[in-house]
Amino acid sequence: MEIMYYIDKGGVIMYILLVLNIIGFTTMIVKFIEFTVAKSKMNLLVEDIYTRLKSHSLEAKQVVGKEILSERMVEYEKGLSTVRIIASVAPLLGLLGTVIGVLGAFDAISKEGLGDPNIFAGGISLALITTVGGLIVAIPHYIGYNYLIGMLDKLEAKIAKNLSMKIYS
């Protein structure tokens, strides 16, 4: 069966998950490119920070250099919280769909009785589809977020090391 069939069958929650998935993957791709470019231009970044430190004493260079680097890293981190939020919220949305589906199934049973299993199956189907959808969205976002944080940490460490070498040389 086609993926749009499942999205349609899962209802509004699956469409919300689809939108979140698009936003999250777009953010992760943009951040990956941004970090890769920053890594390739690391020497320019170190030089830029060092230029801003030239008029300071050695002790001040260390402190101010860390502050400038910290400000840069905050700029790079922008958007990553969106990915983290999507990774956290997606399974909860899947669970909400599960509860809504089961509630619908029991509501149908209370109105129609247990004579026709198809009445119960529709609600359970919605429940399972949204649960799977929530996990399908959450897992890659969780992995992507952690990978990007690792990239950012390595970039920060390399910049700090190169800046320290430049300050002490």
Nutshell version of this structure?
The chain is mainly alpha-helical and 169 residues long. It has helices at 3-10, 12-40, 42-53, 58-77, 80-112, 117-168. It has one domain (3-168).
Q: Which structural traits does this protein have?
A:
169 residues, mainly alpha, 6 helices
C-alpha-based Rg, rounded: 24 Å
How would you characterize the largest beta sheet? none
Q: Which class do the helix and strand fractions yield? A: mainly alpha
Overall shape: it is rod-shaped
How confident is the prediction overall: mean pLDDT? Answer: 90
Number of self-contained structural domains: 1
SSE ordering: HHHHHH
Total beta strand runs:
0
Strand content: under 5%
Distance between the termini: 64 Å
Low-confidence stretches: none
Helix content bin: over 70%
Number of helices: 6
Structure commentary:
The chain has one domain (3-168). It is mostly helical and 169 residues long. The longest helix is centred in the last third of the chain and has 52 residues, at 117-168. It has six helices and no strands. 91% of the residues lie in helices and 0% in strands. The protein has helices at 3-10, 12-40, 42-53, 58-77, 80-112, 117-168. The termini are far apart. Helix 1 crosses helix 2 (12-40), helix 2 runs parallel beside helix 6 (117-168) and helix 3 packs across helix 4 (58-77).
